[in-house]
Amino acid sequence: MGQCVTKCKNPTSSLGSKSESSSKSHHKKGSSAAGGGGHKEEPSAPCSKATSELSNGTKALEVTVETPVIPAMMGEPCKDECLDGDGLSMHRIDELFRCYKDEHEDAILEEGMERFCDDLCVDPAEFRVLVLAWKFQAATMCKFTRKEFVEGCKAIQADSLEGICSRFPCMLLDARGEENFKDLYRFTFQFGLDAEEGQRSLQREIAIALWRLVFTQDTPTTLEHWLDFLSENPSGIRGISRDTWNMFLNFTQAIGSDLSNYSEDEAWPSLFDTFVEWELERRKKEDEQALMAQEEEGKCTEMECPPTTDRHETEGSRGSQTWGGH
Fold first, then answer.
1. Of residues 145, 225, 239, 224, the one with CA closest to residue 192
2. Are β-strands 63-66 and 47-50 bridged in parallel, bridged antiparallel, or unpaired?
3. Does residue 253 surpass a pLDDT of 80?
4. Does this model's pTM top 0.90?
5. Helix locations, the chain, DSSP H
6. How far apart are CA 147 and CA 141, in angstroms?
7. Of the N and C termini of the chain, which has fewer Cβ atoms inside 10 Å?
8. What is the arithmetic mean of pLDDT over 239-252?
9. Measuring CA to CA, which residue among 86, 114, 90 is closest to residue 11?
């Protein structure tokens, strides 16, 4: 298995040996053809002799001109590589896929995905992997089918590990675009579903993890409070529907951080009404606690440090009483 990964890390090593052997065989064929029967010499013969007669009838010295043999395919890819219109090697993409595919299924599954991420030097749970899955249009977590992998590599213009790594900055930049992010956001919901079980809504824990992941680059101010609300109300929130997932993106874009422009009369999911009520109540309690803390701090300060004027007045009165006795 280690040898397979090594080959994928340097896919050009095996391809280079094929090109070299093909050029050698071409050279041998040219030599045999030149020295075969008594036929005329081929233009690609390794050397040719040029002779000429001088004016006095004597022959000039024979000059041997070395003609280098140039392989027909030099500077061009090997036929086995099957480059597409964009210059990508379908052979390399296929070899890369077979390094990580499952032994029994024509797809990269969880174990292969972990090795694939290790070789890309990325964490399987980080945002870059989600963006890569989005570019590959993967239908299921921890799985790339052959079609998804091949079409994905073609979409990002990469046919090697190094090529995929070099595309990450560009992919992250693409994900920042408004329309692209909306597409990524909606993809993430479908990506989190268990297609084999026919799920239509995300489990609460998975939804929380995916919300935190998809908003890695641009985090809304209300996100953490929303996730706290979901975590603290497990009995009333079993799953997140597609409508709730999609509408939350609209919520973060339309509703201000103070929630003052939220209206229950608008067509928001009922869960959002509950969240806004919960959040406003939480903020009210926080403000009350902060006010009480300030008042307590003020009382403590007064008790520890009484005014200086009162102390001087007390000492003066004591002194007058003492001297007044005499």
1. 239
2. antiparallel
3. yes
4. no
5. 2-9, 12-34, 90-100, 110-120, 127-136, 146-156, 161-174, 178-192, 204-214, 223-232, 242-254, 270-304, 308-323
6. 15
7. C
8. 96
9. 90
